[in-house]
Amino acid sequence: MEHIEYHPEIIGATTAMVKLRELVSQVAPTPSTVLVLGETGTGKDLVAKAIHQNSLRKNEWMITVNCAALPPDLIESELFGHEKGSFTGATERRIGKWELAENGTLFLDEIGELPLAVQAKLLRALQEREIERIGGNEVIRTDVRIIAATSKDLAEEVRQGRFRSDLFFRLNVFPISIPPLRERKQDIRLLAAHFLKKHAVRNGRKVLRIAGKVIKILTAHSWHGNVRELENLIERSVLMTPGPVIDQVFLSLEDQILDSIMVGNRVKTIDEVVREHVLQVLKLCDGKVAGPGGAAQVLQMPPTTLHSIIKRLGIQKVYAE
Ligand SMILES: Nc1ncnc2c1ncn2[C@@H]1O[C@H](COP(=O)(O)OP(=O)(O)OP(=O)(O)O)[C@@H](O)[C@H]1O
Ligand SMILES: [Mg+2]
């Protein structure tokens, strides 16, 4: 059976990415369990969504469980649900996400973080396609397509005794590995152009292109945060560039520095910076403006000038509060 669909959202022209899109097309229409592997930010969520969207279940829900986000004793109930009164705090019946995903897809994100005790229950559910709510005595037959993802080396987790080998084999039926960005550097230009368009449109800006020298530097960077890091950088570049061409690289700025110059998703204005600075100095000087040890002396300006800045930027009021 041939089933080829276009995945405009998974960008990449390198052999690895062309192959990846092929794998997605092949496996999507089947009921097969898929294991998506890749470092943080490589696009595991994106691939999981693409599989669901190109499956026969695309009009049903794709439900996500983040196995790393919940304490171990809550994950089981999150996955399989519980009956009223099954444990302290179980005041109502709760339907688990596995049941909610009936006829659709269940995305088990960060599967490598699943506690061993829950791994056993998941294995049974995967084998039997049946689940039981905690405290329930009813066996519920289900029809759920499973996609799991992890940035961990699961085989190594198995060797270390942190992941059940039988569950690993169950999940590893159709593995899809997304290579880190530094191993497909030819895609950087394409991805950068894609994100440039996306964020320029989103911010109502006319940033048209990225200068060649910038592309060169981006290509040399190692991208430990992978595609997410690249997207963040492009978004920042759009915000930081007033003209139509991104001709500066904002990579060398540490995140801390960026934090200090941004407020929300825009750069602070000079007035905002001055206001912050004067406020800090005033605090250091116990609110004293003129005279020895006053803020005006520290800032090397006449007290009258400082007074007018304080008044214009409404600092006095805030400081007095
Ligand atoms: N090949 C790609 N084409 C277009 N966008 C991509 C691609 N890969 C990743 N992205 C984008 O990069 C961002 C990060 O991707 P995603 O959230 O899927 O990564 P992840 O592997 O799930 O990361 P984490 O391990 O941190 O959960 C998203 O905004 C995603 O849309
Ligand atoms: Mg993810």
Automatic annotation (TrEMBL):
UniProt KW Glycoprotein keyword: no
CDD domains per record: AAA (cd00009)
UniProt xrefs under Gene3D superfamilies: 1.10.8.60, Homeodomain-like, P-loop containing nucleotide triphosphate hydrolases
InterPro entries: AAA+_ATPase, AAA_lid_NorR, P-loop_NTPase, Sigma_54_int, Sigma_54_int_dom_ATP-bd_1
Keywords annotated in UniProt: ATP-binding, DNA-binding, Nucleotide-binding
Domain Sigma-54 factor interaction residue range list: 10-239
One Pfam family here: AAA_lid_14
Protein name: Sigma-54 interacting transcriptional regulator
Molecular function GO terms recorded: ATP binding; DNA binding
The organism's place on the tree of life at top rank: Bacteria
Gene Ontology BP terms: regulation of DNA-templated transcription
